[in-house]
């Protein structure tokens, strides 16, 4: 179902940890899935990590990775996607925003390519 998305516990832990480590800058990466769950994280070379804006150089995305999602962190306690976020979301099926305090699933929101909030559940290892 399109509105239901899954993430492995391992992947969730990684993005929470990375978001915390990058704070107050934004962490941004691409995601691919395995067995219907977001599982792999790709940090793209040449990514600009900024205080209020992060961008990925899409020319640097390695050929052969099948990125179906994105993740970036917000340096505050607000999920609300910016206009730039919404433009970026159009490229991927599922887009995660991680907010402070970067602790658990409640600090992660998932959006589809149209910027509509969708469900995100943990799927345990295969
Ligand atoms: Zn954002």
Description:
By secondary structure, the chain is an alpha/beta fold. The chain has a single domain, classed as 3-Layer(aba) Sandwich (Cytidine Deaminase, domain 2). The chain is built from two helices and seven strands, in the order βαβββαβββ. It has a seven-stranded mixed β-barrel. Helix 2 (about 85-90) links the parallel strand 4 (about 70-75) and strand 5. The radius of gyration is 13 Å and the shape is globular. The site of zinc ion has 6 residues, from loops.
Short description:
By secondary structure, the chain is α/β, with parallel strands linked by helices. It is 17% helix and 32% strand. It has a 7-stranded mixed beta barrel with strand order 1-3-2-4-5-6-7.
List the main descriptive attributes of the protein structure presented here.
7 strands, seven-stranded mixed barrel, 126 residues, Cytidine Deaminase, domain 2, binds zinc ion, alpha/beta
Which CATH class applies here?
Alpha Beta
Which small compounds were modeled alongside the protein? zinc ion
Count structural domains: 1
- The counted number of beta strands is 7
Shape: globular
Which class best fits the helix and strand makeup? alpha/beta
Distance between the termini: 19 Å
Q: Give helix and strand order, one letter per element, not per position.
A: EHEEEHEEE
User: What would CATH call the homologous superfamily?
Assistant: Cytidine Deaminase, domain 2
Number of helices: 2
The main β sheet shows up as: 7 strands, mixed, barrel
Low-confidence stretches: none
Mean of all residue-level pLDDT scores? 89
CATH architecture tag? 3-Layer(aba) Sandwich
CATH-derived topology:
Cytidine Deaminase, domain 2
Strand content: 25-35%
Kindly state the percentage of residues in helix: 10-25%
């Amino acid at each position: 179902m399109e509105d239901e998305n899954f993430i492995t516990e391992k992947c969730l832990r990684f993005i929470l940890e990375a978001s915390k480590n990058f704070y107050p800058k934004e962490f941004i990466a691409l995601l691919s899935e395995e067995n219907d769950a977001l599982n792999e994280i790709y940090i793209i070379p040449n990514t600009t990590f900024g205080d209020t804006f992060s961008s990925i150089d899409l020319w640097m995305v390695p050929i052969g990775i099948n990125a179906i999602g994105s993740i970036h962190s917000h340096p505050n306690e607000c999920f609300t996607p910016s206009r730039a976020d919404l433009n970026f979301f159009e490229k991927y099926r599922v887009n995660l925003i991680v907010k402070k305090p970067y602790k658990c699933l409640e600090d992660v929101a998932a959006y589809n390519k149209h910027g509509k909030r969708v469900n995100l559940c943990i799927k345990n290892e295969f």
